[in-house]
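Quick one, probably user error.
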């Protein structure tokens, strides 16, 4: 009986430890600029893991800024689009635990075909 109680207590302690483990997360923030260097309002910003998984999209605010919190740490590819103009992918942007990674995306002057 005593061994069963000790095993039960150890199992409970392990379960609580696992439940309280923190998942490493960070933040990705940045600005979208046009070809002249002006902020782009309401641009679509797409991110995905660098292996092409877990795509996510958001939009810039009135000042061309975006902010994506609670991302799992790792490498992401990021690009922006607005009015038919699409930036190149910015590849392997590293999001680190408890940090904010900043990126600037630039839209080309011409629309992509």
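Nope, works fine. Designed sequence:
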């Amino acid at each position: 009986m005593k061994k069963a109680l000790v095993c039960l207590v150890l199992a409970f302690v392990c379960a609580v430890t696992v439940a309280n483990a923190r998942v490493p997360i960070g933040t990705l923030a940045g600005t979208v600029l046009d070809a002249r260097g002006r902020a782009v309002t309401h641009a679509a910003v797409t991110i995905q893991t660098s292996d092409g998984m877990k795509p996510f999209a958001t939009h810039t605010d009135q000042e061309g800024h975006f902010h994506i919190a609670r991302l799992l740490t790792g490498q992401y590819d990021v690009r922006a689009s607005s009015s038919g103009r699409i930036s190149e992918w910015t590849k392997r942007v590293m999001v680190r635990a408890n940090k904010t990674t900043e990126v600037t995306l630039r839209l080309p002057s011409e629309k992509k075909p």
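The radius of gyration is 21 Å.
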